[in-house]
Write a structure and sequence with these properties.
With about 220 residues, this protein is an alpha/beta fold. It is built from four helices and 16 strands.
């Protein structure tokens, strides 16, 4: 299931197999001065009223209001409405909601917390930050740069805005396919042997992979 937190036009995405899995991530969020909204996409998962109440109160500690729940489970929708949360019955899974989320973002960055599983697609109209692994079969894209704080083993497409200066960075860069603007390359055949992050960028019309050096 996915928890989407919206602050103006900025979205933060969390993924977990259960509501309990969100606890650690939410506890790390600093309390904001103004109340912001969040929505939960739980698809077929059945959520009880008590479980949802724990999540609602945990979010409120950071001044985040849970406003919408999308699910194909009637039990989850009823639990939401009993707590005065807008429960929306839908057979669509989170992947089908992604285009709607992307359309609402105007050149804003997107941060996703958690693993990106096979079949998942995440896109950003600004920079894309993935705090977790990107599994084979997953697709991530951004109009600007991509940063993966974990293993990148899926398909990554940076520079959807048509610029060649976009980059793809990862702690473990072993993508199946890399694309920057119009240039496409198959990922490295061998797994990374070094213990440092790497960056993929365009040089003379080709995608090359180099050690990522950060200057302070």
């Amino acid at each position: 299931m996915h928890l989407i937190i919206k602050d103006n036009n900025k979205f933060i995405s969390f993924y977990s197999n259960s509501l309990v899995g969100f606890n650690n991530s939410i506890n790390q969020i600093d309390k904001v001065n103004k109340k912001i909204s969040a929505s939960l996409h739980c698809y077929e998962e059945k959520i009880s009223c008590n479980e949802l109440l724990v999540l609602k109160e945990l979010l409120l500690k950071s001044n985040i209001k849970l406003t919408n729940i999308y699910s194909s489970s009637r039990e989850s929708v009823i639990s939401a409405k009993s707590l005065k949360i807008n429960g929306i019955y839908s057979n669509k899974n989170f992947d089908e909601f992604n285009p709607k989320i992307e359309d609402q973002i105007d050149e804003k960055d997107l941060t996703h917390f958690g693993m990106v599983r096979s079949g998942d697609q995440i896109s950003s109209n600004g920079n894309l930050f993935i705090m977790g692994d990107v599994n084979p079969g997953a697709q991530i894209s951004a109009k600007k740069n991509i940063y993966v704080w974990g293993k990148l083993c899926g398909v990554a497409f940076a520079g959807k805005n048509g610029k060649d200066d976009s980059t793809i960075s990862s702690l473990y860069l072993n993508a199946l396919q890399l694309r920057i603007n119009e240039t496409v390359a198959i990922g490295p055949k061998e797994k990374p042997k070094n213990n440092y992050p790497e960056i993929a960028l365009l040089e003379k019309g080709k995608i090359v992979i180099k050690p990522l050096i950060i200057n302070f």
